[in-house]
Design brief:
It is elongated and about 45 Å long. The chain has a three-stranded antiparallel beta sheet with strand order 1-2-3, covered by helices on one side. The protein has one helix and three strands, in the order βββα.
Length: 68
């Protein structure tokens, strides 16, 4: 899977990365490369937690959405 990452230089130094498709996935790093590696872990963690939460719901559905 590929995700779109917003990468910004922090005022305090380093970089902040946020996944645009999964706004809860945010990370940072001293370098651009560090931030991009760290955001991968953040995305995985958010997806794992989301799956665990979905298992506790009584009804869960999947839908397909087309977009341009």
């Amino acid at each position: 899977m590929q995700f779109t990452i917003k990468l910004e230089e922090s005022d305090e130094g380093g970089y902040t990365a946020q996944c645009l498709e999964i706004p809860a996935a945010i990370s940072e790093g001293e370098t651009r490369e560090d931030a991009l590696e760290n955001i991968k872990e953040a995305i995985q963690l958010v997806l794992e937690v989301t799956q665990e939460q979905a298992r506790s719901y009584t009804e869960v559905f999947k839908v397909e959405v087309a977009y341009a």
